[in-house]
C-alpha cells in the first residue's frame, strides 16, 4: 500500500473560505521519486474531479494509475529527476476528509452538513501537508481539468512558493453552461429516492446517470461517431429492454455509469462539482487575490475539440492572462478525445511540458 495519510490542523482549525472551521483534517497522498538534497525538485500533481492520489504504478505489479503514460522513469514527469506528490483533495472520497468523514461535533458522518469547499481551501490543505513534509518550495504544480483549477489557485495564493504552473484543459472561471451541466447532474442525484438526504448505504443509481451525462462532455461527437455503430445491438430486443440499451453508445454509457458507482461517492461528487462552479479567478467581485497578481511562469495547454471547457473559454483565459502580464506560454492542440485528451495524449503533451520544465529550471530560485 503506497498511500500515506497525515492528520493536519490538529491544534488550530483551518478557516475555510465559507467562514466555517475544520479541524483534524486527514489527507491521503502518494509520492514518486526522491527529494534531492536541496529540496528543489518537488512537483505537485493536482488531480481532476474523480481522480485520486494514485497517479501511476509504483512497480510493474502495482495497480494502474490515472496518468501512467505521463509519470515514471524517462517519462514526461521523470521519477528519476523529480520528486512527485499527489494529494487527494479536501472533499474527496479516497482517504482525505470529505462529506463521509466523521464530524467530531456529532460523532456522525458530515453528509450534507459538510461545509462548502473552494479551490483555495484545497490548496491551503496541500500547502500545509507540504510544510509538514519539510518542502518549502515547489518546482512546479501541474494539473488537468479540476487539477488545472487547483494549479491556477496555487499561482494566485502562493506565487513565491512555486517556480511554475501547468494548466491542462481548464479555464479561469466556469461558464453558465458548465454550471448548468453540473446542476443537472446534481439534481439527478439529489432527486434519487435512494439518496435519502445523503444517508444512503449504497451509492444512489442516479450517480451512474450523472456520470453518463458527464462522459458526453469529456469526449467528442467525432470520437463517438468513429467508435460506435448506429446499428441496433439486437433487433429482437423487447421494447422494455430496448429502452435500457439498444445501441453501442448506450452500452458504453451504461458501462461507464456502472463502473463509476463502484469507485466514487455521490456526496463528494456534489461538493466537488460545486467547487468547480464557484471557481472564478477573473471576476472583479472576488474578494480573494485575483489572477492579476500572478507572476509565475504559466504553461497553458487547451484542446480545440474540448466539449466541457470550450476552446472559446480557454482563449478568453489566455487573453486575460496576457492582459495582466502573466508570463503565459499558450498552446492549442487538436484531439479526437476532447477534454479527456489531457489524460490520453501523452505524445502531444509531453514535449511541451518537458520544454517548459527545462525553461523554468534555468530561472528557478531553488535550482
TrEMBL record:
Positions with a binding annotation for substrate: 211, 340
GO molecular function: homoserine O-acetyltransferase activity
Location(s) in or outside the cell: Cytoplasm
EC number: 2.3.1.31
Pathway: Amino-acid biosynthesis; L-methionine biosynthesis via de novo pathway; O-acetyl-L-homoserine from L-homoserine: step 1/1
Family annotation (NCBIfam families): homoserO_Ac_trn (TIGR01392), PRK00175.1 (NF001209)
PANTHER family in alphabetical order: HOMOSERINE O-ACETYLTRANSFERASE
Function: Transfers an acetyl group from acetyl-CoA to L-homoserine, forming acetyl-L-homoserine.
Known partners and oligomeric status: Homodimer.
Protein name as catalogued: Homoserine O-acetyltransferase
Amino acid at each position: 500500500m503506497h498511500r500515506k495519510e497525515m492528520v493536519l490542523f490538529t491544534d488550530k482549525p483551518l478557516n475555510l473560505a465559507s467562514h466555517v472551521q475544520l479541524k483534524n483534517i486527514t489527507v491521503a497522498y502518494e509520492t514518486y521519486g526522491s527529494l534531492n538534497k536541496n529540496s528543489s525538485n518537488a512537483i505537485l500533481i493536482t488531480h481532476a474531479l474523480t481522480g485520486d492520489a494514485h497517479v501511476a504504478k509504483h512497480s510493474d505489479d502495482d495497480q494502474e494509475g490515472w496518468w501512467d503514460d505521463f509519470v515514471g522513469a524517462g517519462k514526461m514527469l521523470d521519477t528519476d529527476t523529480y520528486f512527485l506528490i499527489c494529494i487527494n483533495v479536501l472533499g474527496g472520497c479516497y482517504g482525505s476528509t470529505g462529506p463521509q468523514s466523521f464530524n467530531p461535533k456529532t460523532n456522525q458522518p458530515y453528509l450534507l452538513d459538510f461545509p462548502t469547499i473552494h479551490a483555495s481551501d484545497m490548496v491551503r490543505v496541500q500547502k500545509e501537508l507540504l510544510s509538514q513534509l519539510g518542502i518549502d518550495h515547489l518546482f512546479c504544480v501541474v494539473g488537468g481539468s479540476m487539477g488545472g483549477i487547483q494549479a491556477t489557485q496555487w499561482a494566485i495564493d502562493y506565487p513565491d512558493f512555486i517556480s511554475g504552473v501547468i494548466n491542462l484543459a481548464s479555464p479561469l472561471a466556469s461558464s453558465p453552461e458548465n454550471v448548468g451541466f453540473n446542476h443537472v447532474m446534481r439534481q439527478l442525484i439529489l432527486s434519487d429516492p435512494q439518496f435519502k438526504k445523503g444517508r444512503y448505504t449504497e451509492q444512489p443509481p442516479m450517480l451512474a446517470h450523472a456520470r453518463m451525462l458527464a462522459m458526453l462532455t469529456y469526449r467528442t461527437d467525432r470520437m463517438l461517431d468513429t467508435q460506435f455503430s448506429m446499428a441496433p445491438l439486437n433487433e429482437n430486443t423487447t421494447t422494455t429492454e430496448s429502452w435500457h440499451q439498444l445501441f453501442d453508445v448506450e452500452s458504453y454509457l451504461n458501462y461507464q455509469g456502472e463502473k463509476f458507482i463502484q469507485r466514487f461517492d455521490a456526496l463528494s461528487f456534489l461538493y466537488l462539482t460545486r467547487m468547480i462552479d464557484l471557481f472564478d479567478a477573473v471576476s472583479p467581485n472576488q474578494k480573494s487575490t485575483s489572477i492579476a497578481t500572478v507572476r509565475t511562469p504559466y504553461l497553458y495547454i487547451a484542446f480545440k475539440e474540448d466539449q466541457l471547457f470550450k476552446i472559446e473559454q480557454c482563449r478568453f483565459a489566455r487573453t486575460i492572462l496576457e492582459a495582466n502580464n502573466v508570463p503565459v506560454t499558450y498552446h492549442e492542440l487538436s484531439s479526437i478525445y476532447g477534454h479527456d485528451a489531457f489524460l490520453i495524449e501523452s505524445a502531444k503533451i509531453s514535449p511541451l511540458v518537458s520544454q517548459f520544465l527545462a525553461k523554468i529550471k534555468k530561472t528557478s530560485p531553488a535550482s
